[in-house]
């Protein structure tokens, strides 16, 4: 492994945002390409935002989407959380002492100061600045007006306080971003940010920088919304005397109208896409192209190609439009290419949940108790050329496994045919199938050849034979072709269904 180390550092707010997935995924692609390690750290110091089960949910969404990290907070198949690696703990809430020690260092070196301003004073300063049309920032009262003796006095009185960074008053803070090039902020626009809150918890800025340093992170790859925080981070690295990591800020995700990606226009939770029946491979491919394309026009990539082609320098600066039509298209391509043995475990539990089938010792039983396991792969492969999402398999498959559907007698004859003719044609099909060799049922094509051969020899019309055959086999207005349904059902079930229709016409 190289020394390259990257991290995905989500705050557990309840679910994995699609933008978070993009960040995680780009970190993964970069780590794999560089032969480095990807770390997952949970930034959970904001206790007011704590959501039960959020860490599990986040990790499970990542795992489902196919993003794999090497170190940090892990989850197993039972949903058990563990921590792996030499730089832990990887939950920030378990590192509070580390942050306090580091804040003390900054206080001692004169890079930070204690601020005792009560909330009411800060609110007043803020509203005055707003009224004057000035930027809203802390007015540095405690930095400028408190002597060391006064600070000691207030501390002895046990007065609540925060610790702030002493931001340089002049000059600029520069850094080179791997995506955006040189980025420069004038220091007088940067607030004396809080590092440690009055409850002893660190702020995001402090904890993030301390951890990235202690966890030996070499590249910080994250969304563009963090760009304004970066000069504050750079100042912190400088205050500690630490080497800067490489920063890379990924472009914003946009709605089609180029506004910032929002819940109102799109689902933003990865679990929603899972729920709607998207395949993880399709979502991975789609999200991987939100801001980077290894080779220009091509759209479909396997993970290895995405890894090989990944360069931070090739990440786009402009926002990436989240085009759900493209995702739908990709999903259909992936779904149709999925081998049946991979499709089966994705679809069948759903059909079992719906009560269409029951599962026993790895076999599937229809409502009648009949073992229909052999039918399953054929039914799925028929549906595969039509389905666009996994969710499409949730409907309309019942008649393949349950023959108790109603056949409307009046609907059996083809428009230009009548009952006696229909009955005779169905009987002819039954006889043909009864006589046919088993090999005829090997493909829909061989069944088609057989039946069309009879139609031609007899000089019948297609409709008067094929319509009632298909309708008798399915009871549905629309379905795959009669040849496909015969193939999926197999000889015994097909013949029994056709005989049912013949009997109906006899009564
Ligand atoms: N905890 C931050 C988040 O939720 C991390 C941002 C960063 O990567 O620095 O996205």
Walk across the major sheet and give the strand order.
1-2-3-4
Q: What is the makeup of the main sheet?
A: 4 strands, mixed
Identify the bound ligands.
glutamic acid
Strand content: 5-15%
**Would you count the extended β strands for me?**
15
Average pLDDT number: 94
Shape summary: elongated
Structural class given helices, strands, pairing?
Answer: alpha/beta
Low-confidence stretches: none
Distance between the termini: 77 Å
Instruction: State Rg.
Output: 33 Å
- Counting H and I runs of at least 4 residues, what is the number of helices? 19
User: What percentage of residues falls in helices of 4 or more residues?
Assistant: 40-55%
Characteristic key phrases:
single chain; 507 residues; alpha/beta; four-stranded mixed β-sheet; three-stranded antiparallel β-sheet; 44% helix
Please, could you describe this protein's structure?
The protein has helices at residues 18-34, 54-65, 96-108, 119-132, 141-145, 148-156, 204-214, 230-240, 270-275, 280-288, 303-308, 324-337, 340-353, 375-384, 398-401, 419-435, 444-458, 462-474, 482-506, and strands at residues 5-8, 37-40, 71-75, 81-84, 112-115, 162-165, 172-177, 181-186, 194-196, 219-223, 246-250, 253-254, 320-321, 358-360, 363-365. It has 507 residues and is α/β, with parallel strands linked by helices. Helix 10 packs across helix 12. Bound molecules: glutamic acid (GLU). The site of glutamic acid has 7 residues, from loops.
């Amino acid at each position: 492994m190289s020394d390259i180390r990257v991290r995905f550092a989500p705050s557990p707010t309840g679910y994995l945002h699609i933008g978070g997935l993009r960040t995680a995924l780009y970190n993964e692609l970069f780590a794999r390409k560089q032969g480095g390690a990807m770390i997952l750290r949970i930034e959970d110091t904001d206790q007011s935002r704590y959501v039960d089960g959020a860490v599990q949910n986040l990790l499970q969404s990542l795992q489902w989407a196919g993003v794999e990290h090497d170190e940090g907070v892990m989850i197993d198949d039972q949903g058990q959380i563990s921590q792996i690696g030499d730089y832990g703990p990887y939950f920030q809430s378990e590192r509070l002492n580390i942050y306090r020690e580091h804040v003390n260092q900054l206080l001692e070196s004169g890079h930070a100061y204690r601020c005792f301003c009560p909330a009411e004073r800060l609110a007043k300063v803020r509203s005055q600045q707003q009224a004057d049309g000035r930027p809203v920032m802390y007015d540095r009262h405690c930095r400028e007006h408190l002597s060391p003796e006064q600070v000691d006095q207030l501390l002895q009185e046990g007065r609540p306080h925060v610790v702030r960074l002493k931001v340089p008053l002049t000059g600029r803070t520069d850094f080179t971003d791997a995506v955006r090039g040189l980025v420069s902020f004038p220091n007088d626009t940067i607030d004396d940010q809080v590092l440690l809150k009055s409850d002893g918890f660190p702020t995001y800025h402090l904890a993030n920088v301390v951890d990235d340093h202690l966890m030996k992170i070499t590249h910080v790859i994250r969304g563009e919304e963090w760009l304004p925080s970066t000069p504050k981070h750079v100042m912190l690295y400088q205050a500690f005397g630490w080497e800067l990591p490489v920063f890379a800020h990924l472009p914003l995700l946009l709605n089609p109208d180029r506004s910032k990606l929002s819940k109102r226009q799109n689902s933003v939770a990865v679990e929603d896409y899972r729920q709607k029946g998207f395949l993880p491979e399709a979502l991975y491919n789609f999200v991987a192209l939100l801001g980077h394309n290894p080779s220009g026009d091509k759209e479909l990539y396997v993970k290895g190609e995405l890894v090989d082609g990944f360069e931070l320098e090739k990440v786009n600066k402009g926002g990436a439009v989240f085009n759900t039509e493209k995702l739908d298209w990709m999903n259909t391509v992936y779904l149709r290419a999925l081998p049946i043995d991979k499709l089966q475990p994705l679809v069948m539990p759903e059909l079992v949940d719906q009560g269409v089938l029951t599962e026993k010792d790895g076999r599937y039983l229809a409502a009648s108790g009949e073992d229909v396991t052999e039918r399953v792969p054929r039914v799925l492969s028929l549906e595969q050329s039509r389905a666009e999402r996994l969710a499409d398999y949730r409907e309309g498959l019942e008649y393949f496994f349950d023959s108790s559907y109603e056949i409307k007698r009046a609907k059996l004859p083809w428009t230009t045919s009548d009952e006696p003719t229909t009955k005779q044609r169905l009987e002819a099909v039954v006889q043909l199938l009864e006589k046919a060799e088993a090999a005829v049922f090997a493909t829909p094509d061989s069944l088609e050849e057989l039946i069309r051969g009879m139609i031609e020899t007899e000089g019948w019309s297609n409709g008067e034979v094929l319509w009632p055959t298909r309708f008798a086999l399915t009871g549905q207005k629309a379905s795959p072709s009669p040849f496909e349904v015969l193939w999926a059902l197999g000889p015994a079930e097909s013949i029994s269904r056709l005989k049912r229709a013949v009997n109906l016409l006899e009564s």
